[in-house]
Amino acid sequence: MPPTSSRDFQKAAGQRLTAAETLLRERLTLDAQYIGGYAVECSLKALILELTPDPGKPDRLKRITSGASMHRPKVLLRELRDLGVALPAKLDKRLRRSDWATDLRYETGRRDMGETVAFLKTAKEIYDWVEGQLP
Question: pTM (2 decimals)?
Answer without folding.
Answer: 0.96
